[in-house]
Design a protein that fits this description.
The protein is of the alpha+beta class. The chain is built from nine helices and seven strands, in the order H-H-H-E-E-H-E-E-E-H-H-E-E-H-H-H.
Length: about 290
């Protein structure tokens, strides 16, 4: 059962977003610019939590377990403590509720919702792909009837479903907010990077100094092989003949296409730029990849 001092889902997601902003800021400029915002958001959302959902395709199962349990002297009734430890037969009913496999189970269980109930709730025990309910039905001073067993199973099962429903509701809500925040932050990041490139392009024109080539991930992608971008073919005539490398032309077109898509997504950033300025911005992106 979660306590007031436990971290809330809201606090967890706030810290997660802060860490993702730092990670995005550390990415190569070309990586952020060249990839569509939707793809980037989907990638970074991979670090979010997923709800714990019951698997309706599998059946709930029940088993009966028997064992010998030691009741230590201090646990016995006062009048019998002097007789020492006691061994008794213990019987348990174990119910397994199937869930969809989830790698974040322990993290989900350790966090609490914003609203917390002061009434006692059962601890949720998850082993593998099952929520496990373990009820002692017979033991030292205990011998439950069938109706009592059935009622206890239903009660605990209902409590667990209610707890997970509340947790899942907050997870889904926080995931939606995280997706919106990431999308907004990445768009702002793209605008800043585009603005930086436009400024660099202007500085290059004023100083007549070309931009240094960067060996970013985009460059590595385009440099798939060691063939030159434009490869010279043995001339058949006195005039030299050249052929463009098809794969690299496709990569460059993709890079420019992504940049143009960014123009469409953030039109206010570029509405005051003329045709020549937009051309210079595209050239600045290419110059960051090619000499």
């Amino acid at each position: 059962m979660n306590r007031l001092r436990d971290k809330t889902y809201q606090q967890y997601y706030s810290e997660l977003f802060d860490s993702l902003k730092i990670k995005i800021a550390q990415e190569q400029d070309d990586y952020i610019i060249a990839n569509p915002t939707e793809d980037l958001v989907k990638y970074y959302l991979g670090q979010s939590l997923q709800p714990i959902e019951f698997d309706d395709s599998k059946e709930e199962v029940l088993s009966h377990d028997k064992s010998i349990k030691t009741i230590y002297a201090h646990e016995r009734e006062f009048g019998y403590q002097q007789e020492g430890d006691l061994k008794v037969e213990s019987e348990n009913i174990i119910v397994k509720l199937p869930i969809v496999p989830n790698s974040n189970v322990q993290q989900v269980l350790s966090l609490r919702t914003n609203s917390i109930s002061m009434s006692p709730k059962p601890d949720i025990n998850i082993k593998g792909s099952y929520v496990v309910i373990n009820i002692e039905i017979k033991g030292y001073g205990k011998n439950l009837g069938d109706e009592q067993i059935a009622q206890q199973i239903k009660s605990i099962k209902g409590d667990i479903q209610g707890i997970l429903s509340s947790k899942n509701s907050e997870i889904k809500s926080e995931n939606i907010k995280l997706e919106q925040n990431l999308s907004q932050f990445i768009e702002q990041r793209k605008q800043k990077l585009d603005s930086d490139k436009s400024r660099l392009s202007n500085i290059m024109k004023l100083t007549q100094i070309p931009l240094a080539r960067k060996d970013s991930e985009t460059v590595k992608k385009i440099k798939v092989n060691t063939k030159p971008f434009i490869k010279k073919i043995k001339p058949k005539t006195p005039e030299e003949d050249y052929q463009l490398d098809h794969e690299k032309v496709v990569d460059i077109i993709q890079l420019m296409n992504n940049q143009c898509l960014q123009f469409e997504k953030t039109p206010k950033t570029y509405e005051k730029l003329g045709e020549e300025n937009l051309r210079d911005l595209l050239l600045a992106n290419l110059n960051s990849v090619f000499e």
